[in-house]
Amino acid sequence: MKKHIFLQLFSGFKTGVFIGLMFSILFSFVYSGEGFYPMPPSFIEKFSSELTAFLISVFLWGLIGVIFTITNYIFTSTDWSITKMTVSHAIISYLLFLPIALYLNWINFSVTNIFSFTLIYIIIYTFFWIISIIRVKKEVDKINKHIR
Amino acid sequence: MRVKFEKKKYLEENFLVIQAKEKTSEVESIIKGIEQTKTVLNCSYKDKNVLIPSNLFIRFFSCNKKIYGSTIDSEYLVKYRLYELENFLQKRFLRISNNEIINVDYIARLEVTNTGIIIIYFKNGEQTSSSRRYLKSIKECLL
Fold it and tell me: Which partner for A83 in A60, A72, B115, B125 could form a disulfide, CB atoms 3.0-4.6 Å apart?
């Protein structure tokens, strides 16, 4: 069981690094079109060398993957209502993800930036909640029809 | 395959005999199925030990570290843990939360609350709740 959890966390780390890499390539195309810029210049400035900055960056991509692997247990291992699952997942992920996103300079520290990030975050989770409820209601309708 | 039932009143305990030309995989799986399936459960009712056929049970639930099983008209103290029941009961019994197993044959209907909890109504009027992650197994068992 312990080994199983460790493997899942490691797999989350790998997924995080993979997604981070894909996004860094995507953003390099968007912002430059020629060079590879895996992180914002403002982030690189925090370190003595670009290599250190990149290493820290990759580690944090992995850490984000681990965070979402752990918070996913809310959906797979609790008996909570969909609302409680979604809200607790949103809050815990937000509190862990936001500081990393700020540190990585994905979001530059300002009230408007954090506000718009939060707004998008809430919209995504609301959308997710609505879809989950609709899907469960459909499944339940199907089962009820069959019982009758 | 033909099945024949013979009543033997002198038996102290039920004894099944299977006759076959050869022990094929089909026969073996039948034997395994019989051995693993508990059709009668050891329970206690008002401090008396009783044997109750498992298919009479609507649900099993834990409460204060004890396991109870309810039938249409009574409630029994069951002498097994939930995970044991889950293992040796027929496929019609499903886990629907950390502390409950139900018999899908007694489900009258399901309902989703506004917050996304699944309420299960039974044919005897009882009700209980489950969460989204068990819905798939309920569906697979019923459809």
Answer: B115
